[in-house]
Design brief:
It is built from 16 helices and eight strands. With 470 residues, the chain is α/β, with parallel strands linked by helices. The chain folds into four domains: 39 residues, no CATH class; 37 residues, no CATH class; 158 residues, Rossmann fold (3-Layer(aba) Sandwich); 173 residues, no CATH class. α13 links the parallel β7 and β8. About 13% of the residues have low confidence. The structure holds zinc ion (4 copies). It holds the Pfam family Helicase_C. One of its GO terms (molecular function) is hydrolase activity.
């Protein structure tokens, strides 16, 4: 029948599971074949439901069967969890902490979301969604930042002059102003005291100072992690530069060996002529320099972090935590707030000398008073053994679940003696929940696939984008 293809190519239609044998007839009138009493379990419960229903309904159940019943039997996989016994690694618990915005944040987010959705729908209506992938990706970044803290949108490095006016209006101004800002436009905008060192470039993807610069062939520079995420998620074969719209070509192998040093010339403007002096690390400007600190307001997420850290120390006074965010500015805000309430933090930054870094790690490992190590996902590639920490706080979800796993592995390794707690912070009803749902779906599809397509895990298809903005 039409349901399974049986009946074509010389196979009698009675082989179909749904063939309507007449009551009392035990054989097929056409081929005299006996009423079949067996069926292909694979086709019936796995292949066909997925083929005909995709990820929904029966298809989803089929994927779960595939993942939970079939794959474990045919693939010999050794994950960290399964290896825990062999390696004597302590157990790991992952907690999803879901909070709700307060009224002020909700207003801000709703305004931004409504505006973003309208923009998105315009692209869909004109059939130019994928051509505008750079802008859509930017809308997503802005929404993700707004969930962490509205300041990340209002006071971002590219939101020049947007601080005036109502907060929501300012966010919109920030959004528009953020588009196509050339790093050159911002160079020289710093205070006079900064003149001895080159200004840090601003990444057109995350709107923060560039970390681990990766220079595209068109001449624009981005954070290595940002451009990687941007290219990985793009469905179109040739991603385009978010700034100049030229085909984006970035050699990411350059600088991989020395993840801590900015690539030569990455600081943008060289400091005057000559070049006899060693180039200084680019001056970075914390988001804290752009906000009115006495009037500092926290966010639901930062308060959730504060609360979790408070509980952590109450349960175990010797416990320490690694706090991860994709956004450097979020770490700035977390640090400011935590130090306000007396929680001491250390932090690694791109321009730090080896000496300073070692002192930071030393302090975190041995100083009882230091509770938190703030880590930027962008600092990446730094091989650190931070087993002094037994808690991992993931402030925002990432597209690629593998990156989250890497963050957790920083402390879940040999030398770790305490049970590990991983807390993922999510604000309900926001883009973050959609990202998690999308991740779950992709992971399910991924784990049910032989010859796993790692790239598909990160890619955002047109359907995925619609789901995120629906
Ligand atoms: Zn059939
Ligand atoms: Zn037959
Ligand atoms: Zn960036
Ligand atoms: Zn460009």
């Amino acid at each position: 029948g039409a349901c399974c293809g049986v009946g074509e190519g010389g196979i009698c239609a009675c082989s179909c599971l749904d063939f309507p044998f007449k009551e009392g007839n035990s054989t097929c009138p056409k081929c005299n074949h006996a009423r079949i009493s067996h069926y292909c379990w694979w086709n019936r419960y796995v292949a066909n439901p997925i083929k005909f229903n995709g990820y929904t309904g029966r298809g989803r159940r089929a994927m779960l069967i595939l993942k939970n019943q079939i794959m474990p039997r045919i693939l010999l996989r050794r994950t960290k969890v399964q290896c825990a016994d062999d390696l004597a690694l302590p157990p790991r618990t992952v907690i999803l902490r879901r909070d709700a915005f307060d009224a002020r944040e909700a207003d801000f987010y709703e305004a931004l979301y409504t505006q973003s959705q309208a923009q998105f729908n315009t692209y869909v209506a004109s059939g130019v969604l994928l051509q505008n992938y750079a802008h859509v990706f930017d809308l997503l970044i802005r929404l993700r930042q707004a969930v962490d803290h509205p300041y990340l949108v209002v006071h971002s490095a590219t939101a020049t002059g947007a601080a005036a006016g109502a907060q929501a209006a300012a966010a919109m101004g920030g959004l528009d102003g953020a588009r196509n800002v050339q790093p050159e436009d911002l160079a020289g905008a710093g205070s006079p005291g900064c003149r001895d060192a080159p200004e840090a470039l601003v990444c057109a993807i995350c709107h923060e100072d560039v970390e681990q610069p990766a220079r595209a062939e068109c001449g624009h520079t981005f954070c290595r992690v940002c451009v990687l995420e941007y290219v990985e998620t793009a469905t179109t074969k040739q991603a385009r530069c978010p700034t100049c719209d030229k085909p984006l070509t970035v050699d990411l192998s350059a600088g991989e060996g020395s993840p801590d040093k900015p690539a030569p010339g990455a600081g943008g403007r060289a400091s005057g002529g000559g070049g006899a002096t060693a180039p200084k690390a680019p001056k970075k400007h914390s988001i804290l320099s752009r906000i009115n600190l006495p009037g500092f307001q926290s966010s639901t997420k930062i308060e959730a972090l504060r609360e979790e850290l408070h509980h952590m120390v109450a349960r175990d006074p010797s416990a320490k935590a690694l706090v991860f965010s994709q956004f450097t500015s979020m770490l700035d805000l977390c640090q400011h707030r935590l130090e306000q309430v007396g929680i001491r933090c250390v932090r690694l930054e791109g321009g730090m000398t080896l000496d300073v870094r070692e002192r930071m790690i030393e302090a975190f490992t041995h100083d009882q008073g230091v509770k938190v190590f703030l880590m930027s996902l962008k600092a990446g590639g730094v091989a650190l053994n931070l087993t002094a920490a037994s808690h991992v706080m993931l402030m925002d979800p990432w597209w690629n679940p593998a990156v989250e796993a890497q963050a957790q592995d920083r402390i879940h390794r040999l030398g770790q003696h305490k049970p590990i707690t991983v807390t993922r912070f999510v604000i309900g009803g926001t883009i973050e929940e959609r990202i998690l749902k999308l991740q779950e779906k992709k992971q399910l599809v991924f784990e049910g696939t032989v010859g796993r397509d790692v790239e598909a895990l990160a890619r955002l298809t047109e359907d995925d984008l619609r789901f995120l903005f629906s």
